Amino acid sequence: MITLATHNGIFHCDDVMSFAILKLIFDDIKLIRTRDPKVLETADILFDVGGGKFDHHYEGSPVRESGVPYSSAGLIWQAYGGQLIHKLYPELESGFRAEIWNTVDQTVIEHIDAWDNGHGSKDGLSFSAAISSYNGTWKNPTTDKQFWEASAPCQTLLLNKIKSAKDYIDARKVVDASMDLWDKERDPVLILKMFAPWQRTLHELDPEKRIKFVGWKDQDSGEYRIQSVPVTPGARENVVSFPQSWAGLEGAELAIASDVSDSTFCHKGRFIAGAKTLKGVRMLAHKALHVKG
């Protein structure tokens, strides 16, 4: 059994997230919340209290390169985050695990560090503020039960972010494999071997925007989709949009307007269209490059 210890009383997101990280790593744990130095000395891992390496409440405590001081969450993640990722995805290469670690650090942990150390605004309902709301009130003091309850959403957020970062790596592999088959000299259309989120990876691999459209087979309908490449990932402005004269059309109307007989729809936003066949979506893309209006 691993004994974890932190301070009792009011908690913040950093000590709760620290606990969530450790709870996911170690299967058999005991948590002690106290400020009694003699009891704290019995812990295997002590965080957010006691002046040790996972406490940040002392002069000269560690600071990130960004200027944000570490909280206990950042210190625990720095020491144990890699171990958690390895436990969840032991098959991943070390470089990919490091990438996941860094993504979670930048998108979750550093924000918790900043909030806890007073960097940035505490206005509004941030995740850290939401975790703090699990505390008791002056009429009903905070209990260990509330601390455990607060660790559940921390654990959920952490696992979701880790999985999202891992899935991005898998998506990048799909785009990479599809790029290997792309005729970069002549073809403005990239066809994915299967659908995967592609915008971020394509932005990195094709900064010159030689690829204007990306197509794939829709697994539910068996038909094909073709989407305009945005200027930047997630942007509403496209490198090339579908013609205004196609906007919002479906079926026979789109087939007449586009002169693509098996075309099925063109979104009114002119960023995505469909056809029954791969040939059809390719034709829509190539026509969109030359049709005015």
Write a brief structural summary.
This protein has helices at residues 13-25, 37-40, 72-88, 94-116, 127-132, 144-180, 199-205, 251-258, 278-288, and strands at residues 2-6, 29-33, 45-46, 189-191, 213-217, 224-228, 263-266, 272-275. With 293 residues, the chain is an alpha/beta fold. The chain folds into 2 domains: 2-172, no CATH class; 181-288, no CATH class.
Structural class: alpha/beta
Q: What's the end-to-end separation, in Å?
A: 69 Å
Return Rg in Å.
Answer: 26 Å
Oligomer: single chain
Helix percentage = 40-55%
Order of helix and strand elements from N to C terminus:
EHEHEHHHHEHEEHEEH
Number of strands: 8
- In terms of DSSP E residues, the strand content is 5-15%
Number of helices: 9
Q: What can be said about the biggest beta sheet?
A: 5 strands, mixed
Low-confidence stretches: none
Whole-number total of structural domains: 2
